[in-house]
Structures are given as structure tokens and as C-alpha cells.
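From the methods appendix. Each design record in this collection lists the discretized structure first, followed by the designed amino acid sequence. Records were kept in a plain field format so they could be parsed without special tools. The example shown here is representative of the layout used throughout.

RECORD:
C-ALPHA CELLS (316 positions):
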């Protein structure tokens, strides 16, 4: 199948519908999403700052966690500000290039986070199954490679899918029934054959989801086998506590991804797509720092010290 050499779109701007079909909910939704976004910014920036100021947290596990917080911060900031904007202003337009740029970044950050969670599963596998050599195995060089890989792969996959969307023609309606430039919403406006783009997106999605879940599954199979062999209950409890937060984050992240995959492609399902995307891009970035901080003693202790810290005034 031959690709067109250039884009032939007559559409230069898109109109984001958001939740305009519920005008009485615009103000409450704005306040709700603003509060969630504020908690997201504070929580994820807090994780990054806490990791930097506490020497106890200068470990591979918290190094990966700080990058997870950075990714949550980034992909929440791709969609949420525009969502807040279209809830309070009448101008709901976004340029064609701006729309594809938004899609590129959200796609890149989501794929990167998908593999970041897999990297964190491998980190937990090494920590539980080979604790004495943990610092040796998870060397700074290996950690840097494990971090760089997801970023580079996420960017490459996103660039490929975005380019396939750019090659399509958009010459009909310019109304996007969504609050952001999500893949299926953009694709629904194309007036050219989108088969190639759909095949590319399907292959990349299945490959990424399968590979990341296999890495996570394999890591936790070895972890469970190791835990079963542990004679000490104290060691078992400690190992479980280090993995429970990560398992919770994985369950929520991949659960919502699978929900999005299972939504039928019909006009009646657009509300479900919007709600699932909201959970994915607005709720998950807020929940991750809460999940990791509420179940982590070192993080909670550092936060308490920061909150209770009062500079001593000197007598004049």
C-alpha cells in the first residue's frame, strides 16, 4: 500500500468538543480537574524533591521512581491545561500541527511510562531475588541504560504513529468529539484511507503492551518463587512491602489501557472513551505519588521532616 508523499488536508484547525454537551457541569468539572492537577503537580514534584534531599533514597528504586513521577508530570501536563482551558473559554480550537504535537507527546510519555514500569519490575526482581548483589547488579551505568531505553523507544514509536496520522488527509468535519487529540478521535476525522495508520498503531500497541507485560510477569514469577522459599516472615513482609506499591500502579495503569482497547468504535462509546482517557491522563498521574508515598516509610518520614521544619530565628 503506497503512502501519500505529503499531507493534502484542507483543515488547518480542529475544535475540541470536550464536555460541551453538559454545559451545567463546565464550572464544577473545571474546579475538580484543577484540584486534581494541583495535587498531581505537588505530589510528583514532591517525590522528585524528596528523593534528591534524602540520602537514604539515593538508590536505583527511587531513581526509577523519580523518573516515573517526571513522566506522570509530563503527560498530565500535555492534556490537562488544554482541558481546563476549553472548560472556561468559548474558543475551543487547536491548530492541526498543535493537535499532532499534543498527540506525539502524550503517546511518547505513555509508552515510556509503560516500559518504565517494566524496568521497575526488573529492579524489584533483582532486589528481592539477589539482595546482596543488588547495588552491584544495578550499577549507575545499567540504571542509565534502563532509563534511556524507554525514553528513546517511546519517542520512536510515537514519531512513527504521529507521522502516519500526518500523512492522512483531513478535509471534512474539523470537530473532535474529545477534550484532547487522542488517536481514535483524530482518525475519525480523516477523509482518506487510514488502513496503514491503523495497522501501524495496532502493531506498535500490541508489541509494547505484550513486551512490557511479559517483562513484568516474568519478574514477578521469579519474585513469588523466591518469596515462597523465604524461611523468615520478616524478610517476606519486607519483600512484599517493596513490591505492593509497584503492583498497584501496574494494575491501575494497564487496567485502564486495556479498558481503552476494549471500548467499541461507535458514536455511542465516545463518552466512555473520554472518561477512560480522563482516568488515564488525569487520575493516574495523581494516584501514583500517593500510592508510593503512603506505603513508603522513608518517603513519609522525609515529608514529615520537610513539613515540620522551622528555621530557628537568631536573637539580635
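DESIGN:
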Amino acid at each position: 500500500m503506497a503512502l501519500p508523499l505529503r499531507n493534502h488536508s484542507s483543515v488547518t484547525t480542529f475544535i475540541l468538543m470536550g464536555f460541551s454537551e453538559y454545559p451545567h457541569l463546565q464550572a464544577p468539572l473545571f474546579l475538580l480537574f484543577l484540584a486534581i492537577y494541583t495535587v498531581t503537580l505537588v505530589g510528583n514534584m514532591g517525590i522528585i524533591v524528596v528523593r534528591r534531599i534524602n540520602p537514604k533514597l539515593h538508590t536505583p528504586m527511587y531513581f526509577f521512581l523519580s523518573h516515573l513521577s517526571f513522566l506522570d508530570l509530563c503527560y498530565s501536563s500535555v492534556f490537562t491545561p488544554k482541558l481546563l482551558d476549553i472548560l472556561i473559554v468559548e474558543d475551543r480550537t487547536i491548530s492541526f500541527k498543535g493537535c499532532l504535537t499534543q498527540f506525539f507527546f502524550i503517546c511518547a510519555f505513555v509508552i515510556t511510562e509503560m516500559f518504565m514500569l517494566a524496568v521497575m519490575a526488573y529492579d524489584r526482581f533483582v532486589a528481592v531475588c539477589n539482595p546482596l548483589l543488588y547495588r552491584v547488579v544495578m550499577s549507575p551505568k545499567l540504571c542509565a541504560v534502563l532509563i534511556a531505553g524507554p525514553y528513546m523507544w517511546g519517542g520512536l514509536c510515537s514519531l512513527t504513529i504521529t507521522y502516519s496520522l500526518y500523512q492522512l488527509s483531513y478535509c471534512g468535519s474539523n470537530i473532535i468529539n474529545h477534550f484532547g487529540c487522542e488517536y481514535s478521535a483524530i482518525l475519525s476525522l480523516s477523509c482518506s484511507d487510514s488502513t496503514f495508520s491503523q495497522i501501524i498503531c495496532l502493531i506498535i500497541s500490541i508489541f509494547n503492551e505484550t513486551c512490557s507485560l511479559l517483562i513484568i510477569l516474568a519478574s514477578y514469577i521469579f519474585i513469588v518463587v523466591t518469596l515462597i522459599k523465604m524461611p523468615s516472615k520478616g524478610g517476606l513482609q519486607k519483600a512484599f512491602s517493596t513490591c505492593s506499591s509497584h503492583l498497584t500502579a501496574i494494575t491501575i495503569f494497564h487496567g485502564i489501557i486495556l479498558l481503552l482497547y476494549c471500548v467499541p468504535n461507535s458514536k455511542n462509546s465516545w463518552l466512555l472513551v473520554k472518561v477512560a482517557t480522563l482516568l488515564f491522563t488525569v487520575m493516574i498521574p495523581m494516584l501514583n505519588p500517593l500510592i508510593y508515598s503512603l506505603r513508603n516509610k522513608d518517603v513519609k518520614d522525609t515529608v514529615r521532616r520537610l513539613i515540620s521544619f522551622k528555621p530557628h530565628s537568631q536573637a539580635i
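APPENDIX NOTE: Strands lie at 13-16, 93-95, 175-176.
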